[in-house]
């Protein structure tokens, strides 16, 4: 059931988006006997053609002209040599798919196309989905993630013409000094690795591709990179049975269709000097085929690797691989020479023709099972509906977040506050073992989306850096409050490198010795801490440097994501397998809708709605924030400040909230004072504000003010009555008479909330704006929220109305409401300015039971009390301060929000609605009163926006992996 509940977002969103399907997906079923095509084709092939089927050659999925030498050679190998397959390396989606189709058209038999896809198709193809490394998946402890990655990777691969995935890595990385496997493995525990391998294999093959477990019999405990030399493993069979072979047995049991043999010598299994497993009959045939019972495709690791070429020539390596039991020979340095050697071996009786036919039969049968005999081409039109889509990105982001492993957190330094009470200077020192100047750029960019840009300084130290650069970095770090060190130090094929470069090791030791808090993030080799003299204050293992992993790390460092990962390896002298500090999320994060059970495709309708509304002159500009549970999934600005302005509205644009002031400030303050025992809801207002007790108002209660049942008039147009000073307005309200018996009905009243604002000031001894800044905005991290003085226009604020009656000018940066303006811009009913970004933090707090910043801001029971209708019979939908959704007729919450939903609107065209049962919130800020308040077209937009947000729900507020299933 867990897998069924885990996999729904991606597939339902995928199916929603997929108007196109590939021909491969829609081909009619083949009703002929399985294997019939294979046997027919096998009989038509000459020996030379059969041998050609055994080879898989290199291809690049990039644009190549027809006279490019590499392209011409590839075409020759396909048309004349008649190779059985190609292996795509680096490329682009369309270029690769187009070339795959062209090669398939040129080939007499369908080609079996393969690719390395250990962490998604992005391992080789740009602009596809990049997943966290296998060790990161191991750190999540969740095999459902391994299944999902396998499934999605296979779907994207098939869309680009690839049938065979060279993944998963089934090696057990129990050697910290392994220079080639490292984070490519799921971990060091054979049972955990077996579980993940089994799940990944099932995912790949359920999606219609061939999984390849590698590198048999196990490359995890080597200290030599087989790209550079031949590793020798002196293990006996008992050791292999209890460790290296465990994941391969699991893969075979799961039905894996392909296994790659490694260039590893095991002299206690086969004493032939310098003989890798890939060329050993005892290991490939006797152990893998006969003892373990594997009857699928056996492919060699690349025959161009020095683990083979140092001891065997091209022809001898090919012959020995076939003698050992291999079916496909990958990346031979010279296919012509290799074929000649095989032909000669057959002629000499060293290889039988039956042996060749057995391998060719397996290869053809694999192609037949894939349906390539019926349709070998891919539908190019389907690619954008499958590759790199939002549901796949959401899966990657979710896994990255779940994998982050916090191993040290000295002094509880993390999480850093995403909105600190006092500014902090952050120094980012990027360590890289490459010469790529873009390394770390995405990390810093993501960091600047959270922390103020002027508080972040960054520098890159890589292979090009001079000693002076290191000294300058130390000096800069000494002036910082916190030093972030994202370390992009990877184990790379062919380098044999595993340790920290000496210069960077010396630098890190000196940096940590300075005493400043250092946050070291291993975006690669998690063992790098072993090289340090002393540990940093914070050590975070992220296992890879994909964008999803970098984004997850930044969010977690600032409390916008939790730390839940567990170390899947042992780091000798430092940490044990299973270690990992657990920290909860304390602030909202930006996320893909699919991460919280919503659909990106459905939310695109919000764009259409808002753009159409602006075109219809409902308002010149708007900002929208939609969130669910822990995440903000839609945060966008639309239109401009005015219909003729070139100032674009963004999520950080400041709007006049009008009556949202009532809930964001006045009601929230009342909730806080209620919790503190300083405000009795059933006490008469005169207990706190004696001067209110005039003209029959002595018995009006605080609860009645909040529920708009106090008997007060809705409002008075004081600016038209000649009342134009704050004191005069105050006296007019205090001496006003009731217009109905309190508690008998509900009439929405600005006056009641103005009075409640005065009550709050009397209780707290602070002006309302100062109390709100100290007790609401600052704790919630609402940096751009507050009241604004009158008489000071501000062109950076979204304008409201062109006032032709009272102030006789465009109102911009001053409160629109005339009464609040007379009161100096600060009132309990209006006057607040804010942004969609800030209000999203406020709403996040409410849907997360009053918690933010790791602390309770409001009690859950207080939120329920103030958002529950007080008296539906007499007060209608009114709760305490908040409104609730109308059960009939028009509602600004639309038709679909649940019965416990609560919200509020503002006269200037603002609204906020929250459905606690769905943990969903929708915020709309507009300036619909520009240029005149007579415009009411925004009303339909409010309701429709709420419905669109609700219609985007496709599951519970977590990533549902069932969506990956067709």
UniProtKB/TrEMBL annotation:
For this protein, the record's Pfam families field holds: Beta-lactamase (PF00144), Glyco_hydro_3 (PF00933), Glyco_hydro_3_C (PF01915)
Q: Which reaction does it catalyse?
A: Hydrolysis of terminal non-reducing N-acetyl-D-hexosamine residues in N-acetyl-beta-D-hexosaminides
The organism's superkingdom is given as: Bacteria
Q: What class of enzyme is it?
A: hydrolase
| Keyword field contains Hydrolase | yes
SUPFAM superfamilies named in the record: (Trans)glycosidases, Beta-D-glucan exohydrolase, C-terminal domain, beta-lactamase/transpeptidase-like
User: Where is each Beta-lactamase-related domain found?
Assistant: 606-943
Listed EC numbers: 3.2.1.52
Can you give the residue ranges of the Glycoside hydrolase family 3 N-terminal domain? 46-364
Question: Could you tell me the keywords of this UniProt record?
Answer: Glycosidase, Hydrolase, Signal
**One example of a Gene Ontology biological process annotation:** peptidoglycan turnover
Instruction: Give yes or no: UniProt keyword Transmembrane helix.
Output: no
Q: Name one GO molecular function term.
A: beta-N-acetylhexosaminidase activity
Q: Where is the signal peptide?
A: 1-19
- UniProt similarity note: Belongs to the glycosyl hydrolase 3 family.
**What's the protein called, per UniProt?**
beta-N-acetylhexosaminidase
């Amino acid at each position: 059931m867990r897998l069924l509940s885990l996999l729904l977002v991606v597939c339902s969103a995928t199916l929603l988006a997929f108007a196109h399907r590939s021909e491969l997906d829609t081909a009619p079923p083949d009703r002929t006997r399985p294997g019939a095509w294979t046997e027919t084709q096998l009989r038509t092939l000459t020996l030379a053609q059969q041998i050609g089927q055994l080879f898989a050659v290199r291809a690049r999925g990039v644009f190549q002209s027809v006279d490019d030498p590499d392209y011409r050679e590839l075409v020759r190998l396909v048309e004349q040599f008649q190779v059985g397959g190609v292996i795509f390396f680096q490329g682009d989606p369309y270029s690769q798919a187009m070339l795959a189709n062209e090669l398939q058209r040129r080939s007499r038999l369908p080609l079996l196309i393969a690719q390395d896809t250990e962490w998604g198709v992005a391992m080789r193809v740009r602009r596809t989905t990049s997943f966290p490394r296998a060790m990161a998946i191991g750190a999540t402890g969740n095999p459902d993630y391994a299944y999902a990655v396998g499934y999605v990777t296979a779907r994207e691969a098939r869309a680009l013409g690839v049938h065979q995935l060279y993944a998963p890595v089934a090696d057990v990385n129990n050697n910290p000094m392994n220079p080639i496997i490292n984070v490519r493995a799921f971990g060091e525990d054979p049972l955990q690795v077996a579980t993940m391998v089994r799940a990944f294999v099932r995912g790949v093959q359920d999606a219609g591709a061939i999984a390849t477990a590698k590198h048999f019999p196990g490359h995890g405990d080597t200290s030599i990179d087989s790209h550079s030399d031949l590793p020798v493993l002196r293990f006996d069979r008992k050791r292999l049975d209890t460790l290296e072979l465990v994941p391969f047995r699991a893969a075979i049991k799961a039905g894996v269709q392909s296994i790659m043999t490694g260039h590893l010598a095991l002299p206690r299994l086969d004493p032939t000097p310098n003989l890798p497993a890939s060329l050993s009959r005892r290991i490939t045939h006797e152990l893998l085929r006969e003892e373990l019972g594997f009857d699928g495709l056996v492919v060699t690791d690349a025959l161009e690797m020095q683990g083979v070429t140092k001891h065997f020539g091209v022809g001898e390596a090919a012959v020995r691989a076939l003698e050992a039991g291999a079916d496909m020979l990958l990346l031979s340095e010279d296919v012509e020479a290799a074929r000649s050697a095989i032909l000669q071996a057959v002629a000499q009786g060293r290889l039988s023709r039956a042996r060749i036919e057995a391998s060719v039969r397996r290869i053809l049968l694999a192609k037949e099972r894939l349906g390539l005999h019926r349709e070998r081409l891919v539908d190019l039109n389907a690619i954008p509906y499958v590759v790199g889509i939002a549901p796949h990105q959401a899966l990657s982001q979710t896994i990255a977040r779940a994998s982050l492993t916090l191993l040290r957190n000295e002094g509880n330094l993390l999480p850093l506050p995403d909105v600190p009470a006092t500014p902090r200077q952050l120094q980012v020192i990027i360590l890289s073992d490459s010469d790529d100047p873009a390394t770390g750029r995405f990390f810093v960019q993501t960091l600047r989306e959270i922390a103020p840009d002027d508080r972040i300084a960054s520098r890159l130290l890589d292979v090009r850096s001079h000693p002076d650069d290191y000294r300058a970095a130390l000096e800069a770090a000494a002036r910082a409050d916190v030093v972030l060190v994202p370390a992009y130090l990877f184990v790379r094929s062919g380098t044999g490198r595993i340790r920290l470069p000496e210069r960077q090791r010396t630098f890190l030791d000196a940096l940590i010795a300075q005493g400043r808090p250092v946050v070291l993030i291993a975006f690669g080799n998690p063992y790098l801490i072993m090289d340090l003299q002393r540990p940093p204050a914070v050590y975070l293992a992220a296992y890879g440097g994909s964008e999803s992993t970098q984004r997850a790390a930044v969010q977690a460092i600032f409390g916008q994501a939790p730390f839940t990962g567990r170390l899947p390896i042992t780091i000798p002298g430092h940490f044990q397998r299973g270690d990992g500090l657990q920290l909860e999320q304390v602030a909202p994060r930006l996320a893909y809708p699919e991460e919280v059970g919503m659909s990106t495709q459905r939310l695109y309708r919000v764009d259409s709605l808002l753009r159409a509304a602006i075109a219809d002159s409902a308002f010149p500009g708007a900002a929208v924030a939609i969130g669910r549970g822990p995440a903000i999934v839609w945060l966008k600005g639309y239109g401009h400040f005015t219909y003729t302005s070139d100032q674009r509205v963004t999520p950080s644009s400041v709007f006049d909230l009008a009556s949202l002031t009532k809930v964001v400030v006045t009601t929230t303050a009342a909730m806080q004072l209620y919790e503190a025992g300083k405000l009795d809801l059933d006490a008469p207002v005169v207990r706190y504000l004696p001067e209110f007790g005039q003209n029959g108002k002595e018995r009006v209660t605080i609860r009645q003010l909040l529920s708009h049942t106090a008997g007060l008039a809705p409002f008075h147009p004081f600016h038209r009555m000649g009342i134009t000073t704050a004191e005069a307005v105050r006296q007019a309200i205090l001496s006003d008479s009731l217009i109905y018996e309190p508690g008998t009905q509900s009439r929405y009243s600005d006056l009641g909330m103005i009075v409640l604002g005065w009550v709050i000031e009397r209780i707290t001894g602070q002006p309302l704006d100062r109390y709100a800044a100290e007790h609401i905005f600052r704790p919630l991290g609402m940096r751009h929220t507050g009241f604004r003085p009158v008489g000071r226009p501000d062109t950076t604020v979204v304008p409201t109305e062109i006032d032709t009656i009272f102030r006789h000018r465009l109102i911009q940066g001053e409160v629109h409401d005339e009464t609040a303006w007379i009161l100096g811009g600060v009132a309990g009913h209006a006057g607040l300015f804010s942004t969609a970004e800030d209000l999203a933090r406020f709403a996040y707090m409410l849907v997360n039971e009053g918690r933010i910043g790791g602390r309770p801001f409001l009690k859950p029971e207080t939120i329920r009390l103030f958002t529950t209708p007080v008296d539906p019979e007499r007060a209608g939908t009114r709760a305490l301060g908040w409104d609730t959704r109308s059960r009939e007729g028009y509602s600004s919450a639309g038709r679909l929000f649940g019965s416990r939903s609560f919200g509020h609107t503002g006269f200037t065209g603002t609204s906020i609605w929250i459905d606690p049962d769905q943990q969903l919130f929708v915020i709309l800020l507009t300036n619909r009163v520009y240029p005149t308040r007579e415009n009411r077209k925004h009303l339909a937009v409010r309701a429709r926006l709420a419905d669109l947000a609700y219609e985007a729900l496709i599951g519970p507020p977590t990533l549902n992996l069932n969506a990956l299933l067709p």
